[in-house]
């Protein structure tokens, strides 16, 4: 009896202890519904997906809030298109008032930019630590490392470039935080230092990346050496002209930098014009057989892989059943007549008098606009509509890439550089070549009777036609100081005080005592 | 370390193992009239051993000479007998109202009420039996002091909100399904998994407690203070509700059959104006506020009274209601053999048809509780098997509203419905499929082995398997002609628990000691799968088939967690006079990172029974017991997310404005860290709740009157809260242990048996009342106020240090401007007080300009200088009042509940007047129903001294915003919750038919409500944010008749 008892006791105790130690394991539960840092970054495929994630974050950033890329770059320039009132107050930015709460809280918020940058930082830090074993699924590991890192550097540089054009001074982070929870709050870094970092990143990226593309599907929608050079050209021109807002004389060193970079890009990039007969191809991005040869860098938004957009900037303009079957005859965005007057009218001696007709022969006039005789002309530059419900023609998506840099953009910049260098002949040649190519009215040409200022005006008019709704115009106007003719709200005084920069959303100040408001907006928000 | 502790504890206990002369004692227990008392408890003092009497009052128990037996039974005074020889005992118990000898369950142990040192409220399952409710938690309302239950929805199968001693849940985002933290439910020793990984809109939205049949419940004990709850450690911070189900009783087999059926009545509908009256009222407003041209543009609906399409008199509300019914049937079989084997089997069917079309709830349950003894009575084997199936029909399927029309956009009564339109609005109830089924299977095995009279090892193993399934289908017509939609959802959860503990009980002279120590592990795994298809080609297809590949969505999920615990409790008393108890528990959770896996939760409590002192003997005849007790302890809470310690990534993270579902970039799957809240939170630790409680229990005249009073203070610290991370880190928020909430209050329970013992008429009365005040003590980021995000447009809740949780955030309404001249003028600019969209005018509400800038700020995304934290949506005083009468064979129970001192924001009322933001306000005004303006003092013309501002037609001055104190109402109510009348047929008559008992009863549930607010249809039908939006399910009245037969 006594023995029996103790046997049972010991048995029971053993059971308790065995289960006790076995279930230590249950305290380690790993996620199966998500991948996570500890197990990710273990193959080349992971890096490719991470890089796709980085591009996707950039795409998300630039399309956020009614496609903010175009709001910063086009909408505030006012005379290019008009946003109708619908209650959200967005149209207010076209009059230079960036203080309306809903606008400053969205467009003044750089959170999404930093998510893109954080991703780049992460990829850069991870690829440096990756062992060859981690990347064993890749054929050419050395090349792969360069390609991944170069693109991440480019995305970071481009994101900072966009930020510094919008806000001037912005916080600068180039490290991947080991523990984001203990990450410090940062003040704004001066635009000069941010731009130095962009230049450094670009140079490093350019060294890592190649001209051209080995994989056809990556063409233009991922960054290569050409994309980096395009960015660098823009950076140099921005820095040359915007470092000192009180000076109208560009910094010659940066103009020279821009010139050499651009020359090399045009010579070695392998880019060319799209035939004007195939005009829309440039803005679609890619057809079944070919990619637009103009594309230097564009964000992929092709609905053939379900990446089109139902809120594309183009859809804000489109109206009428012939464009989208179920759209009515109203669109919120439309093109004011002043745009045509500014950009397509030209002086012409018809034999008896000076007239000022519209250059309706220009391909860009014909292809980019419709309902031109109505009160609200429409832009159809982006109108590659795909119905996801093709049976009933419902569920329209635009399958147009978001073009950031392209060949024509770069070609025109040649004129700007030439003008900064007082090389008027080159400028004349570039502008006329652009008109010629686009089938413009032969009477609409510039010649050596034009002064430098006249030519600068003609250059900006040409940009207005070529780069319409591509997120560049406003910055062009700032660089060239041509804004007074086009942007009524931006006085020279306001310009000199940096009044074109955006204020920072008050919500970002909540936790960050180092942050200061953009100087022009101090006390105005 | 823990293991060693455990072992040495065992060895220590073995040392106490002693021998004495063994005898078998038998006896008979009877009442004063010599009738046998069945089920009386017979216990050997100082041990864990005991038995119960059979239906002849007979018991038999092996013990030793000189042992002391304690005999007790509910309704009788306890007795003790010292064993001097082995002859049969004959014991007569005297009747008593005292319940001191009743046992309460405090987790892994039972103690008598007398020796309990913690704040515990208990009720017997008898109180809940045969009341028409779809789940037992609804019935807890008002019955247990300190447990606040609000049955805010009358939907069949709905879950009420339950909180013990206030809630401490703070969240920065508005989420109607997650406002209060709910207590831990423990059914027969098994903590129930409470995690909900999907919201009611995704899953079946079924109450997981709905599967417990109220008639199976033996008793419910609520552990309120930390000393009691700490033994459940990491999950006990919000109180623990212990449910014990009925077991087999010794004696002859017993069959109980009971059932009831009745009707469910819809409550009174809200006031609307109909037909001609509506047209007149609207035209009066329009003619006043519009100029001639605007009036010319008015729609024909209002101007063309002769048009047969527009001269209707439709009461839209009416169309959605029906009269419901409720049916319930219970069967139970129980008994026990002489050898100690017992059984109880029960089964239940409950069926409620709701008062809104296509809503209802069905429950089927089965429970088997077996008991057996082996190894010479040393091993107790007690398996429990439980299965339940619930089926809920939920109308339109929206988690919060059962009907398709929002309450504030009911169409105008003027529309005459053509049959197609009507079919469209109501047709869904016929053709719409929404089936929500949940199955729950639970197997529990209790093994306990008595090593000696003093030492026992218990092992509890439980396996719980839940699965639910939702099938949902909407026809082409309901999808606006875009093709039919099908959705299917299925989930499965398993929960495995093993708890092994040993208990030691002994008496050393006047020292009584009892110790429990053990170890427990829990593993829980949840998986779900869902699929949907839209734009289908055929209404007949009600599954996800036949949809184009592009229009099919699929999703599945996996979640798991583990919990490992060690616990111990020691209770000591000296001579039954000075009681001391302490417990520790340490829990390790898979939800925390390497360095913070373990949490430690100690508690201590003490009590002093004054009436045991010799110097109190003088009053002992009046005061049968006075006990003072105090406790202090810590319990915890965990985050609900399982994988916070990992740096989680988002796969298919290609979404952007215009294509939220894009998963790729350039056709390559995009993967990014979860930049919203996915940063690894390795430093996260347990929420801790530190609570003290002091209380007293008093019993007068052997239980004729009794009172219990508790004061407590519960400080939740290290509460988990999302804090904002630096924007430059790329991440948005991370959880930190950063908030503090205090709940403090008083609880009082008074009970009385007013009439003398001899009286034929008996009257038992019990009042319990609890006051709880909650206050936010700490917020992250330096205590900055936080406006809840995700709330409606007006953002009417705020978290603010010093204010209660989810306090309202409102403009202060001062009145209505009688004329334009009454609007204050800004002395600096000469303009009137304005908002960004214009100056205020006569007839508008006057808001207090709190920052004095002559501008009422309208922005809602964050702090607004013209709004202030005000009011408290959390009920402060809650309780219940029970009165039971019996006379001969009749019984009458009247049960009332009440809630006082609560503020309610009447969003519905605000919405009915607000038309300020609509793009086409006149049309909108004409098309939708309006309140009866003749019944209110509304501003009509300049000079009116009105209570209501003029009807807002697209002014953008937002003066009818719901975020203003004008719409704040008093939420106090007193409800006569149920009245039960019963009659038992006389025994003499029944014995002829071999029937033991035959009872008929009738219940009126929800008989009447008395409330302070005139505008709320039902002051209880208010969500946990203290809002009435008009969308919920009205609380119906139920009238049932039933009978109960026992063979």
Automatic annotation (TrEMBL), chain A:
Coiled-coil segments: none
List, alphabetically, the SUPFAM superfamilies matched: TPR-like
Q: Which residues form the RagB/SusD domain?
A: 342-482
| Sequence ranges assigned to domain SusD-like N-terminal in this UniProt record | 58-237
Gene Ontology CC terms: cell outer membrane
Which keywords belong to this entry?
Cell outer membrane, Membrane, Signal
Which cell locations does it reside in?
Cell outer membrane
Q: Name one Pfam family in it.
A: SusD_RagB
What family name appears in the similarity comment? Belongs to the SusD family.
Protein name as it appears in the record: Carbohydrate-binding protein SusD
Traced from the root, the source organism's taxonomic lineage reads: Bacteria, Pseudomonadati, Bacteroidota, Chitinophagia, Chitinophagales
Automatic annotation (TrEMBL), chain B:
Membrane topology, as annotated: Multi-pass membrane protein
Q: List the SUPFAM superfamilies.
A: Carboxypeptidase regulatory domain-like, Porins
Query: Which residue numbers delimit the TonB-dependent receptor plug domain?
Result: 114-240
Q: Which range is the signal sequence, renumbered to this chain?
A: 1-20
Give the location in the cell.
Answer: Cell outer membrane
Its keywords, alphabetically, are:
Cell outer membrane, Membrane, Signal, Transmembrane, Transmembrane beta strand, Transport
Q: In the UniProt record, which is one GO cellular component term? A: cell outer membrane
Top-level taxon of the source organism: Bacteria
| Protein family membership | Belongs to the TonB-dependent receptor family.
Which NCBIfam families does this entry report, sorted A to Z? OMP_RagA_SusC, SusC_RagA_signa
* Name of this chain's protein: TonB-dependent receptor plug domain-containing protein
Q: Which organism is it from?
A: Niastella vici
